[in-house]
Amino acid sequence: MAISGRFVLLVLLGLVPVLLLPGWSSFFAVAAVLAAAAGADLALAGSPRLLQVVRSGPVNVALNARVPAELTIHNGGRRRVRGSFRDAWQPSAGAANPVQPVDVPAGESRRAAVVLRPVRRGDLKSPHVTFRSFGPMRLAARQRTIASAGSIRVLPPFNSRRHLPSKLQKLRELDGKAAVQIRGAGTEFDSLRDYVRGDDVRSIDWRATARRSAVVVRTWRPERDRRVVMVLDTSRTAAARIDDETRLDSGLEAALLLGVLAERGGDRVDFLAFDRRARARAGTAGKGNLLGRLVQAMAPLEPELIEMDWAAVPAEVRAVTAHRSLVVLLTSLDGGAPEEGLIPAAAQLAAQHVVVVAAVRDPQLGAMLAERSDAAGVFRAAAAERALLQRAAVSSELRRFGVEVVDAEPHQLPPGLADMYIRLKAAGRL
Amino acid sequence: MTGPTTEAAREAGPERTAVRSFRVRLRRHRGLAALVVLVAVGLGLVIWAQLAPKGDVVPLSVSNAGPGGARAIAQILGEHGVQVHDARNYDSAMAALDSSSSPTLLLYDRNGALDAQRLRDLADSSARVVVVSPRLETLRALDGGIRQAGVVPDGTPALAPGCSLPDARAAGQVSGGSGFVYDGGTTCFRPSGSAAGVLAASTDGRLVVLGSTAVLGNERLDELGNAALGLRLLGSSPDLVWYLPSLEDMDLTGSPRTLDELAPDWVRFIGPWLVVVALAAIAWRGRRHGPLVFEPLPVVVKAVETAEGRARLYHDYRAMDQARDNLRAGTLSRLAATLRLGPGTTAEAIVDATARQLGKPASTVSDLVNEHPRSEARLVAWARELHTLEKEVRRR
């Protein structure tokens, strides 16, 4: 039960009779009258127990977008329910008006909407709705909490979307051009066209030239229907914050851009979030568009405070595809002992696939390097130097096994990875 | 095996587990528990000592055996055949006076508890009144022509009788410290240069005023002629009523009205009703609109923390060699990258290439790069020189 401000005001007004007729009897009499009024109001209030809540509204929402979460309240009782309700969205859902008035006549339904402005990625929940039903005098209310699980999935923002047009442009330029310079296995015949100066003479199709008066060259287009497997590390190193986002978020951005780009490039994309077990999977082989499936799979991902099981990664990739593919490992270069985890796994994968390791570099290390004003600054520079040297050592070790490394600052990682993909595709290495 | 035991534990009920967990906790914090018990016992003893009845502490009470009491003289009087009636209040004093013939009344009214009417009734009922250190109102009510006349001056340990009163002459010298002197009637034991004395008797002899409690008190009874004076003053009749008025004898009817009585009736109810209003307001604002909801917060760590921690370790242990090695290796690798030297290039080759690039002698660059700074100040300067070198190479 709950009481209203009106009741408190009434109690304050009760001071007048108490003072006009001083005495304990009038004191208790006024108190009894007030209590009886509240009790009567409570008895006449519609039962909130008989309310039913049905949630509707959007399931997915972008970060920082405003969206109404709707709910339909049905009154199954015999009395009108008047009062208020509170939809218990968790704070990061950013409910603008969680407490609203409600007035549902007996046997009818009313619709209400709570405007949400989520500030965090993931599945945001509202476990229950609490109703307060006031009596006709609005003095006292019956309060009841009804379990009604609501959930909204806040999708990753995909800020790297802005790089997409330029990268797609680059990808289109590959068509019909790139393979002209580079002949070899894995390129596909596209069409014949007239020779122009600058074309590789080795690509002249003599048979076609013989049939015509002009010299004709063959053109190739980049290979299609290759496989791109992205493995996102969600282990403890993903929880590290660099600039203002975690490694996990930077990795998600890079994976989204690469995924969309590779799909437009005609390749098959598979995404796997993994630490000691698979946290999320998504891929081209499914219904709907790839981007939608990717963001759906990525939305609830959180860094797990456990060590990455690198030994299991090759098997996971093999489970996704048995063919030669581009395997992108989105991880970090400086967590724990990469020579025991990342390097052997990448080397093993590199034996069969083209492997790219994409990692975020902390721009603050570069800032620390330049601090040389006093002893503390020099020691900080030395520590930063050591961290950078370690990364460089791991990178060169990886390159020794034929693994490509994209080591970039958070905002440069998605375009960097996309450029690496385009370069590999242009080189016909997929 | 574990199944039945856990089953049994569950059947044993929550209170058994609660007792067990309490025991376990007790055993774990044995020292603390002992300390708590010790403090509690000490506290109890102190409180008990404070609250314990301490016997009679009323000055000049016949049952007070302390220095300020008058048990000694009462017992001596009793041994000499004087019946001492210890009256605790006005009614019992009046009853004792009425029940005996020609009684003597000892009155010691420290706080002025008796009003004039009661004092007159007491005086009328008794054959002789001995008043000890009376107040102005008391003397006025008794109307014996005796007035207050100040105090015995300091430094007067003994006073001589100096009068014709037989009791005083028989007693000889008495203690004089911290007494009051009275004027009027017959005065004895006068301090030098004063007409007033510690002992004053009205002309009819029914009222005797004694200005010193020391004469009757246990502490000084055996000194000088104190005992003699006291016994002669109090032991002249077979019945002695020993009356020390207390606060309960005070007549309250005439006392001034309090603020509470002056205020109107309704004032008393404002406070309680405002408490009721406050409780209602607390219930109104304090009632939450449904249970709290949880916000699962993800773990986020600043990535640069590890490097900063390592920097603090270097600094705390003054790891200058380690810092120097790191900075040197970093500089060399960056120089190699800037000068487009391959990954396998030796340090000497990088130094040579740098010297050529800058047009400096190779020894200068080599000395700088291979230096081992021996102090922190030199380390800072050296690190800056390295930084400058890199910048110069990049500029060319």
Distance between the termini of chain B: 81 Å
The portion of residues forming beta strands of chain B comes to 5-15%
Specify the number of helices of chain B. Answer: 16
What integer is the average pLDDT of chain B?
82
| CA radius of gyration of chain B | 50 Å
Low-confidence stretches of chain B: 1-14
Largest sheet of chain A: 6 strands, mixed
Q: Rough shape of chain A? A: elongated
User: Structural class given helices, strands, pairing of chain A?
Assistant: alpha/beta
Describe the model:
The complex is a heterodimer of chains A (430) and B (396). Chain A is of the alpha/beta class. Helices cover 34% and strands 29% of the residues of chain A. In chain A, the strands form five sheets. In chain A, strands 1, 3, 5, 6, 8 and 9 form a six-stranded mixed sheet that branches. In chain A, strands 16-15-12-17-18-19 form a six-stranded mixed sheet, sandwiched between helices. In chain A, strands 2-4-7 form a three-stranded antiparallel sheet, with no helix packed on it. In chain A, strand 13 and strand 14 (245-246) form a beta hairpin. In chain A, helix 4 (164-174) packs parallel to helix 7 (247-264). Chain B has 396 residues and is an alpha/beta fold. Helices cover 49% and strands 11% of the residues of chain B. Chain B is built from 16 helices and twelve strands. A seven-stranded mixed sheet of chain B has the order 1-11-2-3-10-9-8, sandwiched between helices. A two-stranded antiparallel sheet of chain B has the order 4-7. In chain B, a hairpin with a 5-residue loop joins strand 9 (199-201) and strand 10. In chain B, helix 5 runs parallel beside helix 6. The radius of gyration of chain B is 50 Å and the shape is elongated. Mean pLDDT of chain B is 82; it is low at 1-14. The chains are: A alpha/beta (430), B alpha/beta (396). The interface between A and B is large, with 69 and 55 residues. Strand 13 of chain A pairs parallel with strand 12 (301-302) of chain B.
